[in-house]
Design brief:
two-stranded antiparallel ribbon; single chain; mainly alpha; three-stranded mixed sheet; 61% helix; 18 helices
């Protein structure tokens, strides 16, 4: 009984951790080119989205941003790229350019923007950095100095994506890069663009810290939408976003209470947030995981299942639900959710839980390599030690 309780506590610490870990130690050196960095962009974007709360899946918001990016993509310098924009469900006032023509716009950034021109100016500036390959070029020199690890090409891809994501979060553009991006963006908008100081409310930290000229930008006169009648306006998008803000403000208070290990207070705030802003997968995920921490498995399962039904694209929802199902000995559901979690973001935690699942079923053919994966990926950590004991006691 004591043994199972200790392992349960170790896994719970892992399930609720925000920093996924690579599955292999560093062993083998590879050379990275600009092209490879750009190919790693998709994995880096996925890692950043998963690490920072998942995507904010709202049709109105996404349709508006897709339409705005299509309009920006009509500028000559942007026409050959396959641009993508994703909304990250995180309160940070952040916008990240990811090599491979992806822009990640954080919920907190959208809430700070006051006009379509302001948003277009910052998106256009980020797209200029990508069109000029600024991040891809500096990443080859700085981000990938450490050799890459692997026994498999799939692991190498995952690790490169994580390295690139970490580099993007730490990167500050040089004055030369900023000057080039501003000039490139000005060239796209032409004489109709006007230099202006962005709103004082727009990211006094986050995005603006990465850009030495970040307090100013060229505000464009945007080309008309390709659609005869745009389905969604800036006002439509902003109204939807602002309706979510109060509930998420309460949710963030709950996150802080949970960080302080005040679990009953956190659960109360999460319930209030779920009432105020219903049908939000991330809020339900936080609620389910908080119930899990206090041992209320049935309540945890209920809220995590609702979260997955609303949006199955966040690894923590599925990892938590997989863990609950494993404790309830619902092995079919546990395997499904843990596999889905690993597909979204491979983690040591997910590997350990899958290994434990197969161990309980007596399937050592599948359990053993997973336990070994955990030992390799977390050799000195709690899960690594627990996995080593499982292999030794076989």
């Amino acid at each position: 009984m004591v043994k199972h309780f200790v392992v349960w506590m170790l896994v719970m610490l892992a399930v609720t951790a925000c920093m996924p870990q690579p599955l292999r130690p560093w062993q083998k050196e590879n050379v990275t080119t600009v092209v490879q960095v750009k190919r790693a962009g998709a994995d880096a974007a996925r890692y950043l989205v998963q690490k920072h709360g998942g995507r904010l899946n709202d049709e109105t918001i996404q349709n508006y941003l897709d339409s705005l990016v299509r309009r920006l993509a009509t500028y000559k310098g942007y026409q050959k790229q396959d641009w993508q924009v994703q909304v990250v469900n995180d309160p940070a006032c952040e916008l990240l350019a990811v090599p491979g023509e992806t822009v990640l716009v954080y919920r907190g950034f959208l809430a700070a923007v006051n006009s379509e021109q302001e948003l277009a100016a910052v998106l256009g500036h980020a797209m200029a950095h990508l069109a000029l390959d600024h991040l891809a070029r500096t990443a080859t020199e700085e981000a990938f100095k450490r050799p890459i690890t692997t026994t498999s090409s799939d692991d190498s891809t995952v690790i490169r994506g994580q390295q690139l994501a970490d580099y993007i979060l730490q990167h500050h553009y040089s004055f030369e890069e900023e000057t080039q991006a501003q000039a490139f963006w000005q060239q796209q908008v032409g004489p109709m663009g006007q230099a202006a100081v962005l709103s004082a409310a727009l990211c006094r930290d986050g995005w603006i810290e990465r850009h030495p000229n970040g307090s100013s930008a060229v505000l464009p006169v945007l080309p008309p939408p390709a659609e005869p009648l745009p389905a969604v306006s800036f006002g439509d998008m902003h109204n939807v976003l602002m309706a979510l803000v109060p509930g998420y403000a309460v949710f963030e208070q709950g996150v802080e209470q949970e960080r302080l290990e005040h679990f009953p207070q956190a659960i109360g705030l999460y319930l209030q947030a779920a009432t105020q802003t219903p049908d939000q997968s991330r809020i339900l995920t936080g609620l389910g995981l908080a119930y899990l921490k206090v041992g209320e498995l049935n309540s945890a399962k209920h809220h995590l299942q609702r979260a997955v039904r609303l949006d199955g694209g966040y690894y923590r929802s599925r990892l938590g639900l997989g863990y609950v199902a494993l404790q309830l000995e619902e092995f079919g559901l546990a395997e499904k959710e843990l596999r889905a979690s690993q597909a979204l973001l491979p983690t040591v935690q997910g590997s350990y839980l899958l290994a434990e699942l197969y161990q309980r079923q007596g399937d050592w053919q599948q359990a053993e390599p997973l336990f070994q994966q955990v030992v390799d990926g977390d050799p000195h950590g709690r899960l690594g030690k627990a996995a080593r004991r499982a292999l030794q006691q076989r």
